[in-house]
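>> received
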Amino acid sequence: MIEDIKSIIENMKKCLKEDPSSIVFGELNDGIGEINEAAILKLGKYYDFLSLTNGARCGDIDFWSYNDLEKNQYVLSDIQDERESWLSIGQILYEPLLINKFDGIVYEFIVDDGSMNSFGELEFFLKNYVFGPSYCKVIPNSENDDWFLFLKKNGRISN
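>> returned
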């Protein structure tokens, strides 16, 4: 994971701890401890994120913790390939958030029609959509969203 994302996540953890109302809209957990090499390979690029925060709630974007991953893979039943390229890593407004384990590109899977929206590589998605101004592109009416306001208050989004 690029150093920029590491510092953003650490800064946001600090800001969340300083804001008592943050429990309602945001949570960045401690990073995952040691796991075996086979598990790391199965997680692909998502392991890097889990090493920084083992699951997260960022407004209407949720990321599964390592312990919750297995029970949330059911959404892949119709799209998983023989290489097991896909990993369900969370959700955006209850639509599954997937990552291709080999290229690190993140997608929103629209269950109703089976389509996917690409958000680019994991680091790009985190920097711009989770912790940046593009949050409002994926969350309708985000101007009054607590996470969006938190990002503005803490300098991640300019006024």
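>> The radius of gyration is 15 Å.
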